[in-house]
Amino acid sequence: QVQLAESGGGLVQAGESLRLACAASGPTGSPSSTVKATAWFRQPPGKDREYVAAIRRRDGTTNYNDAVKGRFTISRDIATNTAYLQLNNLTPEDTAMYYCAANSLGFLLPTTQWDYWGQGTQVTVSS
């Protein structure tokens, strides 16, 4: 079974940046064989969870929510089974719990079934 662990959240001021990390772990070989795509979602206070971005492990193909294009960048490090989300020019509207998720199909769309989820990391942006 694969586990996902997010890190990198925190309290920043508007205009600043953060880099979130999502590390996949499990029995030897399971992250690399199981995690074919990783996504980031976020849930602002009192709102529904929304898709942010996703990346395919094999070839690095990415997909973004239009609301974050140009400010957020998703990437992955195959050697360490880690996915990253670079958040630039943050605004208070980006305040949310950020979750990473993974699937074993390699699909990137928001409607994909994401089988594995982390516990989340909080991002708070002050004005």
Task: Summarize this entry quickly.
The chain is mainly beta.
Question: How many helices in DSSP terms?
Answer: 1
Report the mean per-residue pLDDT as an integer.
Answer: 96
Specify the structural class.
Answer: mainly beta
Strand-residue fraction? Answer: over 45%
Q: C-alpha Rg, in Å?
A: 14 Å
What percent of the residues sit in helical stretches (DSSP H or I)? Answer: under 10%
**What are the segments in which pLDDT stays under 50 over at least 5 consecutive residues?**
none
Key features?
127 residues, 1 helix, globular
Describe this structure in words.
The chain is mostly beta strands. It has one helix and eleven strands; from the N terminus they run βββαββββββββ. It has one helix spanning 30-34, and strands at residues 3-7, 10-13, 18-25, 37-43, 50-56, 62-64, 72-77, 82-87, 96-103, 116-117, 121-126. Strands 2, 4, 5, 6, 9, 10 and 11 form a seven-stranded mixed sheet that branches. A hairpin with a 5-residue loop joins strand 5 and strand 6. The longest helix is centred in the N-terminal third of the chain and has 5 residues, at 30-34. The chain starts with a strand and ends with a strand.
